[in-house]
Amino acid sequence: MSRSGRSAPRLTAKGMATRRRIVEGAAQEIRERGAAGTTLDDIRARTATSKSQIFHYFPGGKEELLLAVAAREAERVLEDQEPHLSDLTSWAAWQEWRDAVVRRYEQQGVDCPLGVLITELGRTTPAAQALTGRLIDQWQSALRTGIRHMQDSGEVDRRLDADRTAAALLAAVQGGVTILMSTGAIGHLEAALDTTLALLRTAAPETRPGT
Questions:
Q1: Same domain, residue pair 92 and 57
Q2: Of 91, 98, 127, 199, which alpha carbon lies 20 to 30 A from 144's?
Q3: For residue 40, what are the domain limits?
């Protein structure tokens, strides 16, 4: 169901491609103009679609379309960390992930399309909270998997709480990104990642005497 209470249409392959084109076009428009400055007419012009097509795929109108764009932007947050995020199996891989995160946000700068969209939708609305929650859960899960792999390979002490450590890493990233968006400075994000990863490296298994 859409937020308007109307059922979303069942889509053919062609319909899914059209819907995806509208979402991608809207995302690009919002990156250039901001959510408040983007109208449905702007999106129609960019995507070469009619008003009836927009409302066919997004019965709830602009609000439903913004939510779809926010969901796509959330996917991009994770996609931009690949293939490293899904393969945190060595210290070199963790360093490559760190570099990918810094590069992504350095390129993004102070403008965060996802943050703008979530603000526009209302941070406390159920839909926005659910979307943000899914992103955090998926991101933390990938980091937790990486930490557990390092524990299984003997690089990190098994007594370390993998889930809490993953949460701390994620909080470090988000804290650094928040400062970046406020000041334009990337240094705090780099410091947060470097420090948390250094602490993870020090969580090596204890070596028993004689081994």
A1: no
A2: 127
A3: 13-69
